[in-house]
Amino acid sequence: MEKELILSSNAIGESNFHIQLTPAFRRQIFRDEQVAELTFACILEKLNELKVVLVAYNFGPDHLHLFVANVRFVSEIELVRQIKGYSSFKMRRHFSSLFKNKLWGNKFWSGGHFYRSVGAVNKETMKHYIEDCQDKHWERASAPKLVEDMQKRIVDFST
């Protein structure tokens, strides 16, 4: 699938992301289809407001994958903050009875998230990110080790 670049008055390009969000305490709240559908509706409402295109999505029992495009008007971190804040507020305010036995307090999402910038998104790339990369993003690297790995890559690249 060929992706057209987006042209604005000052720039041309594309900005696509694979984002994974996890409910608080990694609880399996999305086993309930109604919770998944309502959460998706809240997220879609916010994405439309932010003028971000949802290319694809997939729910696991304890996480959500989003493939978004046209992320031009907000940064990745602001996009995630907006999605999580809005959907958490709406879900807890209007539908908390659906998951009150699994989540408590003012939490709906975990504190963190996974993201990766991606090129054009198609069926094959989505399958790759969902199936093949599922465990990799949960591995933690210590900051010194991460810096060391990055330095090695820069040196290797320059030769």
- Largest sheet at a glance? 4 strands, antiparallel
Can you tell me the CATH topology?
A: Alpha-Beta Plaits
Give the integer mean of the pLDDT values: 82
Rg is: 17 Å
Instruction: Quickly give the structural class.
Output: alpha+beta
Distance between the termini: 33 Å
Percentage of residues in DSSP E strands = 15-25%
Strand and helix map with partners:
Blueprint: E1 6-7, E2 12-13, E3 16-21, H1 33-49, E4 53-60, E5 63-69, H2 76-95, E6 114-118, H3 123-132, H4 143-158
Antiparallel strand pairs: 1-2, 3-5, 3-6, 4-5
Please provide a written account of the structure.
The chain has 159 residues and is α+β, with helices and mostly antiparallel strands. The protein has a single domain (6-158), classed as Transposase IS200-like (Alpha-Beta Plaits). The chain is built from 4 helices and 6 strands, in the order E-E-E-H-E-E-H-E-H-H. The chain has helices at 33-49, 76-95, 123-132, 143-158; strands at 6-7, 12-13, 16-21, 53-60, 63-69, 114-118. The strands form 2 sheets. It has a 4-stranded antiparallel beta sheet, with helices on both faces. The protein is globular. The protein starts with 5 loop residues before the first strand and ends with a helix.
